[in-house]
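User: Mind token order:
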Amino acid sequence: MTPDAHQIVFDNVSKFYGEVLGVNKVNFSLEPGITSLVGPNGSGKTTLMNLLTGLIKPSRGAIYVLGLTPQQPIEFFRQVGYCTQFDSFPPGTNGYDFIYWPLRLHGFAHDQAVKLTNEALERAGMAQVARRKVAGYSKGMRQRIRLAQAIAHHPSVLVLDEPLNGLDPMARSESIALFEAIAKQGMHVIISSHILEEVDRISDRVVLMSSGYVVAEGQSRKFAAKSAITPCKSWCAAPTPQSWLPRRSSSITSSKPKF
């Protein structure tokens, strides 16, 4: 397949952890805008995001992000920003340094890194507390400082794993407004959630996942009419054809028949 310079493409992608299924037979292409990955806990959303950001390699298939692959790390990681749902901060760091030093590692000069750091802090609403130790931040503040780091280098693809968790209503509204503003600039914004209603109103498209499979995808408004009526029916258990799975994986089960 010829990769498209404006799309995110998953071409027959599978990921297995030994005999444990991560995701299987994933095929889709995404245009710029806000895309939500929705599914219950353990459905494969985080695995899909880790694949998309190059943190793990697929067992099968290929992934193209704006025509690039993780095998082109310098160009690839300049295009991608990732805000995980987990806290992972260097001991003793403050909010400013948490953004500034990764920018230097990206290759930005001091003056440019300072400018980008201050800009990201302002956009995430963290400028006033940037010099405080991250260890003293609330959960919502830690979420926002991770978001600031993810957008600081002006990526074209922003990947957000459960980005609204722990935010109060005001911070939630501000974050959603930021996501929408970024998407309007022609960027990709990929958001994961286990609650369809939480992301439906801001999404251009929705990808529904269950047990490692994409069970449905389409424009958000269509899901509002369909999946809001019978969302659980997409996640019913069904036998998995063993020919899909690698050898010695007969214990793996799935909820999606082949489409």
The chain has a mean pLDDT of 83. The CA atoms of residues 46 and 200 lie 19 Å apart. The beta strands are 8-17, 20-30, 33-38, 60-65, 80-83, 157-161, 188-193, 205-210, 213-219.
